[in-house]
Automatic annotation (TrEMBL):
GO terms for molecular function: alcohol dehydrogenase (NAD+) activity; metal ion binding. Its cofactor is Fe cation. Residues 171-367 form the Fe-containing alcohol dehydrogenase-like C-terminal domain. It comes from Aurantiacibacter luteus. It catalyses: a primary alcohol + NAD(+) = an aldehyde + NADH + H(+); a secondary alcohol + NAD(+) = a ketone + NADH + H(+). PROSITE patterns: ADH_IRON_1. It comes from the Bacteria. This is Alcohol dehydrogenase 2. Keywords: Iron, NAD, Oxidoreductase. The keyword Acetylation does not apply. Residues 3-159 form the Alcohol dehydrogenase iron-type/glycerol dehydrogenase GldA domain. Belongs to the iron-containing alcohol dehydrogenase family.
Length: 367
């Protein structure tokens, strides 16, 4: 991590053509230019900039086709979670020669991908630190490819890249990162002392800096803290996976195109309330990191205060929507619950079981 490190990207790649995956908006505002200019001095570069929000399997296949045509020997993912997730899947497919249909799920991508460098331009997804690529398949369903082969060889954290972000994106991606830390800390079976330490460090950094990052765009120290926090939360949930909040958020992205961070913000307090019986003591442990004033309270007070403090942060940074604000009505809750049940990969990590009926009730509470 350092200001300007993205311009040194060429030093992290092997000789030979590079597939550079980004999105059209980042190119249009010129954010990719310093890195691309530097890169072109050393490498032939094929740029794939057609990554969309909630990236599709089709985007990955198009990126792979371009990479193959260019003879790419390495891949760069430059942007938010979407370009990074496409780059991860494309690097794997180009290197391994596998078919994409056979690698969805956990541990099914067993080949070797091309060398991969990820450069996040938001402080949120933590995708630069995880072995997960989330793609939209068949128009609405979110599917994950999860395997060690998807880890990047290098993640370059450059706070300068995040200074031009609009406030609502800083806010939503920042909450996403906080949810990664929280869900890693309460992950049911794979919670472990190392991911706990990383999650706590991440949540403390994110909670202490998210308001400043949103309100003072030029505050580089806050941007650096957010980028570091998002990365550490990514390392935490790469080892102790996320759970119910994400499981219920994904159908909102798939069916209503609610941005991922905002979808998490919508579901967060309601899933935490559902989890309280089992996860309360863990939420109590995290509470002073989010609001130091909660420290003297008992376990129950801290756990309740934790949820309230998270809602207060979301409101302060301009995120206090209800499902109704993003076009979801009461009649949609049953369908969303059905869709959430497809996210068993995530639901199994939740500290409390979420049945279809629970999911429907949680969506209804968020209306
Ligand atoms: Fe997330």
């Amino acid at each position: 991590m350092r200001n300007g490190v993205a311009e040194d990207i060429g030093a992290f790649l092997p000789d030979g053509p590079v597939l550079f995956v980004t999105d059209a908006n980042l190119r249009a505002i010129g954010l990719t230019e310093p890195a691309l200019t530097e890169l072109r001095e050393w490498h032939d570069v094929a740029v794939f900039d057609a990554v969309e929000e909630d990236p599709s399997e089709a985007s990955v296949l198009a990126a792979v086709a371009l990479g193959r045509e260019a003879g790419a020997v390495s891949v760069v993912g430059f942007g938010g979670g979407s370009p990074m997730d496409v780059a991860k899947a494309a690097a794997y497919l180009l290197g391994s020669g596998d078919e994409i249909a056979g690698i969805y799920g956990v541990g099914r991508a067993r080949g070797e991908g091309l060398p991969l460098v990820l450069v996040p331009t938001t402080a949120g997804t933590g995708s630069e630190a995880t072995s997960i690529s989330i793609l939209t398949v068949g128009g609405t369903e979110k599917k994950g490819i999860v395997a060690p082969a998807l880890y990047a060889d290098h993640a370059l954290l450059d706070p300068l890249l995040t200074t031009g972000l609009p406030r609502h994106i800083i806010a939503a991606t920042g909450v996403d990162a906080m949810v990664h830390a929280i869900e890693a800390f309460t992950s049911r079976d794979l919670k472990n002392p190392l991911s706990d330490l990383l999650a706590k460090e991440a949540l403390g950094l994110l909670a202490a800096n998210i308001r400043t990052a949103c309100d003072a765009p030029g505050d580089l120290a806050a941007r650096e803290a957010m980028l570091r926090g998002a990365f550490l939360a990514g390392v935490a949930f790469a080892n102790a996976p996320v759970a119910g909040v994400h499981a219920l958020a994904y159908p909102l992205g798939g069916h209503f195109h609610v941005p991922h961070g905002l979808a998490n913000t919508l579901m967060l307090p309601h899933v935490l309330a559902h989890n309280m019986e089992a996860a309360g003591p863990m939420y109590a442990e995290l509470a002073p990191l989010v609001d130091p004033a909660l420290a003297p309270l008992g376990i129950e007070g801290r756990a309740q205060g934790f949820v309230e403090a998270l809602v207060a942060i979301a409101a302060d940074i301009g995120l206090s929507p209800r499902l109704a604000d993003v076009g979801v009505g009461a009649a949609d809750c049953a369908m969303l619950a059905d869709e959430a049940m497809k996210q068993q990969r995530l639901l199994v990590n939740n500290p409390v079981a979420i049945t279809r009926e629970d999911a429907r009730r949680i969506y209804e509470a968020a209306l």
